[in-house]
Every structure is written in C-alpha cells, then in structure tokens.
Amino acid sequence: MKATYDDTAFTLTGTHWSGTYPLEDLSSWLGFYRQQRDLHPKAAGKYDASIAELERLTREVDQPFGKSE
User: Fold this and answer.
1) Which domain holds residue 23?
2) Long-range contact list for 20-24, CB < 8 A, 24+ apart?
C-alpha cells in the first residue's frame, strides 16, 4: 500500500487498484478503514496496511515541511 499527495488530493494505491480523493477527505477515509476493521474482525489484517499508510500520510500532511512526490 502506498499513499501520496499534492496540494489538493491524495492517492492510495494497492496491488490491483488505486483511488484519488480530495485531501480534505483524508480523515474520513482513515475513519472508514478503521470502521471496516472493527466491523469485520475476521478480515482485520486486510485493512492494516491501508490504515498504517493513511496514518503515515496524515502525519506527513500535518508537518509544515512534508510533501511527497
């Protein structure tokens, strides 16, 4: 799983898919993946990489000097 961003959007890329969303929706997507993990405990491991990458991206976006390419 890999997440990148620019001034207006972020892209989350998995092995077989990717999606680009408004940067302002980052916390909502992180919440969505956390909720899915909680609602579907048998599939919990399936969400871990997405959650970890979105948490990393959230920290990076919150840093004044952080930008990914």
Assistant:
1) 2-62
2) 23/61
- Residue 68 in domain: no
DSSP character for 6? Answer: -
In a domain, 43, yes or no: yes
Number of domains in the chain: 1
The answer to whether 9 touches 22, Cβ cutoff 8 Å, is: yes
Measured distance CA(16)–CA(41) in Å, rounded: 23
Q: Which residues of the chain have pLDDT under 50?
A: 69
CA–CA dist 59, 63 (Å, integer): 6
Q: In this predicted structure, what is the pLDDT of residue 62?
A: 86
User: Quick one: tokens of 40?
Assistant: 């579907």
The pTM (predicted TM-score) of the whole model is: 0.83
